[in-house]
Write a structure and sequence with these properties.
heterodimer; A: mainly alpha; MetI-like fold; 2 domains; 13 helices; B: Dipeptide-binding Protein, domain 3; five-stranded antiparallel sheet; four-stranded mixed sheet; globular; SBP_5 (chain B); Peptide/nickel transport system substrate-binding protein/oligopeptide transport system substrate-binding protein (chain B); peptide transmembrane transporter activity (chain B); signal (chain B); SBP_5_dom (chain B)
């Protein structure tokens, strides 16, 4: 197992390198002149434009720019944006916001999603099962933008249960945005769990467990649920990776200064160093959580071995 | 100056639709933790989008940082509501015999927030820093009238040869050419003083600046969140802060900020989403304020393109646009029809100065036929993407189709980063969107940068590449005129020639809307569209 993890971790290095080259090339290929756009309708003086282009190696070919970036990276320097703000500072500032939002969202989707899925799965075609089916269909079909605004207006402004926007109330500020962000995945988790449980309830080993006279709760939690979790864990793992990439709409509506908003702004202003730094980090998260999922497989199903 | 609210323009546009929902409700007004009453004291909060640059005045030319920088700094002069220069700032006097060699005398007793004196040195050092391209300050080009600016740009010198410190409170400024309006020019950010501590560590300074204004920064600016500025007790000016502190709250989306203001969580917002303006008016009553601004939206013409080389074509297109209708239908009255090449807030504005700005479809049609314009080809309309220009540019196109029988094609898919360089290389193949607001309250601040030959790209913003020596001449004469009335007369003559040639058609003047909660009073916007924070009182 240890060797397997080490090998997988080592493999991330070439993947990250390749990803950063790709992202770098894509930002490089964006048409237009980012320095020129800094001044808006009133242009910067040509001398200032020249100085900035020189400073950020924008006059050099792609591979020199990438080499300069890589040289900085080896010194632990992720570079700066065109305004001289270190990219590392930007990440340190925005990542915690996104991490908190992700934690809240994942808690919601895991706890509510799995409980709803299990209850629906063990009593198929019951009233509760239909309720879960209908409500998840509704949630999945509403765009998150609309959901976010409705939640903000209803629970924030009208009822006043939650803060409308911002991060001033600590973890409490993340509850409403987290719930909105989790809503879509929550519906998927509930449905995945339901289907999986329903299928496994008919499996031989469950029947055997029942026949042995085990209590119903033990049959469901230890036997059925554990075996039904593999697709759910796969989904949640991938979802964590995606959520850590930032949720532009949720972060914008609820005014959370997270990483999604940052990367969106940086792409529109062609801030190469910021985009490459953040997106490479996102790639790493994705790889990492996929690894965690693979390890969890072995724990959930002892038949799976990595050697 | 630029006025693009850059942040997440795309998202903001997408969200705008949903804002309709939030027009209703929200009438509880628990303030944001303020307890002061009567005169003075208390804390209020102010909406702001993330400033694009570090908080250094010479590097701040966009509206967001501008608001913060001007709470922290007071310049040499200030302006009355009519745009007159007032010596309410640091300058005791700004004098010249010949409009070229200026002597600036400072008032005694002004200090920076760290206690060091505001002296001649602090101005001269700051100006030299801002002008030097090595420091890449956005506002550097504002100093271009000072002698030696070009040498500094070329790298031949590091300091402006036109600046000299006489004594602690006096310094002299030599200009490249006589310019009577110089005292107005120095009212802008690029001319603010910098304390010694700035030069030790500009990066740290940009996060927690030390200025000389009514408010001081006792903590660092937190990107994405904002900062609370407190009243500077030893402020030497007449406009000391009424409140104890102002909290700048950063919002990524104006719609969210507006919802927060409805609930009383943020006290002042100076940008209202267009689709809620009408409901904001009824909801906030006299706490909804409309202010004229210096911003003009133009439809420029590529005079270098053979199709648009004939002034009659440009006049006809200008006359065929029903500005009133577009202003009502699309801007909900936030823009008013423009009838002049300079904004109404400056001296020298004349109602109806732009003869061909009046809507007259019959005359327009006749004029276009007379010019022999090829109507078989569509007119291409250029604008930058992601900044909500689509709807009104399409309306302009529809007017051209309806009134002139022209087909049109929208060319609005380029970002600023591509849009401007294309215009610079004469790549716009049809009328283009352009916006401008003044650097200092004067007609000249529109005419020189937009309509003279020396302002053609890449040095300036004359993207129509219009050039008429007579216009440049008249403006130059106005710059050297003995008194203001004479200068205005000459600028007006230049404007008349421009109005005939119509290199850019003025379309709209912008009005700025702001709302505030019952927590604050005395909210007003100045000519630069900034909320005058020192005057705000907390109830």
């Amino acid at each position: 197992m240890g060797r397997y993890v080490a090998r997988r971790l080592l493999l991330t290095i070439p993947v990250l390198l390749g990803a950063s080259i790709l992202i770098f090339a894509m930002v490089f290929a964006l048409p237009g002149d980012p320095i020129r756009a800094l001044g808006g309708d009133r242009p910067l003086s040509p001398a200032v434009v020249e100085v900035l282009k020189e400073r950020f190696h924008l006059n050099d070919p792609l591979w020199i720019q990438y080499w300069e970036y890589l040289k900085g990276l080896l010194r632990g320097d992720l570079g700066t944006d065109f305004r001289g703000r270190p990219v590392l500072d930007t990440i340190e500032r925005t990542l915690p916001v996104t991490v908190r939002l992700t934690i809240v969202a994942v808690l919601f989707e895991t706890i509510i999603g799995i409980i709803a899925g299990v209850l629906a799965g063990i009593r198929r075609n019951s009233y509760f099962d239909n309720l879960v089916l209908v409500s998840t269909t509704i949630i999945v079909s509403i765009p998150i933008l609309v959901l976010a605004f409705i939640a903000q207006l209803l629970f924030g402004l009208k009822l006043g249960w939650f803060p409308i926007a911002g991060t001033r109330d600590g973890w409490f500020s993340y509850v409403l945005p987290g719930l909105v962000l989790a809503s879509g995945s929550l519906a998927y988790v509930a449905r995945l769990t339901r289907t999986s449980i329903a299928e496994n309830m008919r499996a031989d080993y469950v029947r055997t467990a029942r026949a042995k006279g085990l209590p119903r709760s033990r049959v469901i939690i230890r036997h059925t649920l554990r075996n039904s979790l593999i697709p759910v864990v796969t989904f949640i793992g991938a979802d964590i990776g995606a959520l850590l990439g930032g949720a532009i709409v949720t972060e914008t509506v609820f005014n959370l200064p997270g990483i999604g908003r940052e990367v969106f702004d940086s792409i529109s202003s062609q801030e190469g160093a910021v985009v490459v730094g953040i997106v490479t980090l996102m790639v790493f998260f994705f790889i990492f959580f996929n690894l965690v999922v693979d390890i969890l497989y072995a724990i959930l199903d002892p038949r799976i071995r990595y050697d | 100056m630029k006025f693009t609210k850059r942040n997440s323009a795309l998202v903001a546009t997408a969200l705008a639709g949903a804002m309709l929902l939030s027009a209703c409700g929200g009438d509880d007004d628990n303030g944001s933790g303020s307890e002061g009453s009567g005169s003075g004291g208390g804390t209020f909060s102010m909406f702001v989008s993330e400033p694009e640059n570090p908080l250094i005045p010479g590097n701040t030319t966009e509206s967001e940082g501008d608001q913060v920088v001007n709470a922290l700094w007071t310049g040499l002069v200030k302006f009355s509501e009519e745009g007159e220069v007032q010596f309410d700032g640091v300058a005791e006097s700004i004098e010249s015999e010949d409009n070229q060699s200026w002597t600036i005398t400072l008032k005694d007793g002004w200090t920076f927030h760290d206690g060091t004196p505001v002296d001649a040195e602090s101005f001269v050092n700051a100006w030299n820093y801002t002008a030097n391209p090595e420091n890449a300050q956005d506002g550097g080009s504002y100093l271009s009238r000072i002698a030696g600016f070009q040498e500094v740009q070329d790298g031949a010198a590091t300091e402006l040869s036109g600046l000299a410190v006489e004594d602690d409170l006096t310094f002299t400024v030599e200009l490249e050419a006589p310019f009577a309006l110089f005292p107005a020019v120095v009212g802008y950010n690029s001319f603010y003083p910098l304390p010694e501590v700035f030069f030790e560590d500009p990066d740290a300074f940009g996060k927690q600046p030390v200025g000389n204004g009514p408010f001081q920064a006792e903590e660092e600016w937190v990107p994405g969140e904002g900062v609370t500025l407190t009243k500077y007790e030893d402020y030497a000016g007449d406009d000391a802060a009424q409140a104890d502190a102002v909290e700048f709250m950063v919002y990524a989306d104006v719609a969210t900020a507006y919802t927060d203001a409805q609930d009383g969580n943020v006290d002042i917002i100076d940008v209202i989403p267009a689709d809620v303006i009408e409901s904001a008016q009824s909801e906030f009553g006299d706490r909804f304020i409309e202010t004229e601004s210096s911003q003009i939206t133009y439809l420029g013409f590529p005079t270098y393109d053979a199709r648009y080389a004939d002034p009659r074509v440009r006049q006809a297109i200008s006359m065929a646009i029903d500005r009133e209708a577009i202003s009502e239908a699309i801007f909900a009255g936030t823009r008013t029809p423009a009838d002049s090449f300079v904004a109404p807030v400056v001296d020298g504005y004349r109602e109806g100065a732009c003869e061909f700005c009046a809507y007259d479809p019959e005359a327009a049609k006749a004029l276009l036929e007379e010019s022999g314009f090829d109507t078989s080809q569509p007119v291409e309309l250029w604008f930058n993407a992601g900044a909500s220009h689509d709807a009104w540019m399409e309306a302009v196109g529809n007017q051209l189709r309806q009134n002139l029988g022209l087909e049109f094609q929208l060319r609005g898919d380029l970002d600023f980063a591509q849009y401007l360089p294309l215009g610079e290389s004469k790549g716009w193949t049809g009328p283009y969107r352009y916006g401008w607001s003044f650097d200092y309250p004067a007609a000249e601040s529109y005419l020189t940068p937009l309509f003279t030959e020396q302002s053609q790209p890449p040095l300036g913003s004359n993207y129509s590449f219009y050039a008429d020596p007579q216009v440049s001449d008249l403006i130059a004469q106005g710059d050297q005129a003995g008194d203001e009335a004479e200068a205005i007369e000459l600028y007006n003559q230049a404007e008349d020639i421009i109005a005939e040639a119509m290199p850019m058609a003025p379309l709209f003047f912008t009005e700025i809307q702001s709302v505030h909660t019952e927590n604050v009073s005395n909210v007003r916007l100045d000519l630069f569209q900034r909320v005058v924070l020192s005057e705000v009182t907390v109830n």
